[in-house]
Amino acid sequence: MQDLYLMAADGGTIIIVEDDPNIADLASTYLSRAGYRVLPVGDGKRALDIFRSEKPCLVVLDVGLPGDLDGFDICRTLRATSDVPIIILTARSDEIDRIVGLEMGADDYIVKPFSPRELVARVKAILRRSVMVADAPGRTITIGTIVIDVASRRVTVAGDEVQLTAREFDLLVFIALRRGLALSRRQILNGAWSNSWIGDERTVDVHIRQLRKKLGDDLDVHTVWGVGYRLD
Ligand code: CA
User: Fold this and answer.
1) pTM over 0.90
2) What would the mean pLDDT of 9-26 be, rounded to a whole number?
3) In angstroms, what is the span from residue 112 Cα to ligand 1's centroid?
C-alpha cells in the first residue's frame, strides 16, 4: 500500500480508517484512480494523528476497529474540532449503527459489502456538494436570530457560532430557501443532498432533530403530517 502515498493526486487527500486490509486496498485503489491522494490507516489512534498532520478533505471511517477507539469514538473526536466530511462504513445491517453514526456527525454511511464504485460516487457527491455551496453567491439568510452565511458555511444563533456538519448545513440552507412550503422527506433527500444520495427517509428525521437541538426555537420547523416538514 506504500506506493499509494506517492501517487499524484489533485482531488485532495482522503484518509481511510479500516482494519481489514482487503477493503482498505480496494477502496484505496479506486479512490486513487479517481484522483485522490489516499492514506489508509488501520487503527483509531494513528488515524487521529494522521488527521491532524494531513488535513484531509474527507475521511472514510470503519465503525468496527481494533483497539480502544472505534469508529464512533473517532467520529465524535473529529467533530469536536472539524467539519470534515465523514463517510462511515458499517458491516452491520442494524439500522442503529447508521442512525448513531449520523447523530455523531457523519455525513453519509455505506453498508458493507459495498461496491468500490459506489464509494467513489458518494465521495464525489459529498465533495461536489461542499464546493457547490461554498461557491454560492455570498448571501446571508436570516431566520429570527439565526443567521446563515452561505459562502463561508457559518451559522450563528444570536451572534454565537453553532457547529453544523456538512449535511446539516446543506439541509438548513435547503429548507431556509423554501420557507412556507411543505417539503416531503423525499424532496429533502434528493434536493438537499443531491440525487446520488440513496438514503432512507428517516435520515431526514435524524438531521431535522439535530438542527432543532442545535438551533433552538427560532428554527420554526413544523412536522407536516403525512408529508414531511415546513419551515415558517
Ligand atoms: Ca473493521
Assistant:
1) no
2) 89
3) 10
